[in-house]
Amino acid sequence: MHHGSCLCGGVKYEISGELSGALNCHCSMCRKAHGAAFRSRASVNASDFKWVQGEELVTYFDSSPGNHRGFCRVCGSPLLSRFDQNPSVFGLPLGALDDDPKLKPMLHAFVGSKAPWHDITDNLPQFQELPK
Ligand SMILES: [Zn+2]
Ligand SMILES: [Zn+2]
């Protein structure tokens, strides 16, 4: 079981299964959504995910058609992404987790959009877009 919450503590969730597909996304949308050099995220099965508290605070922004980025409307923490083309899987920003997900990002995606002020200093594989 994994637990996560937003910065203000108003929203809490739990995940009963394992995460997968962890990566760092350097696309410009993720950078802006997180106010950071990149977004570290994983995938979670929708059936494993449950809001425990504050679901009514979660607001969705459609960063592109069919891509709904959920965040806490009080504190702004990114919490969950839903995808119209794949509703059985959610995208989960690792930063909101409260415990060790027992996996680490395995690659860098969209490095073609990488912030000029950030240098990647690890040896993980880098991809110009999302690897197939
Ligand atoms: Zn919050
Ligand atoms: Zn991205």
Automatic annotation (TrEMBL):
Keyword terms: Lyase, Metal-binding, Zinc
Sequence similarity: Belongs to the Gfa family.
Record's protein name: GFA family protein
Tagged with keyword Metal-binding: yes
Organism (species): Methylomonas albis
InterPro entries: CENP-V/GFA (IPR006913), Mss4-like_sf (IPR011057)
Residues covered by the CENP-V/GFA domain: 2-118
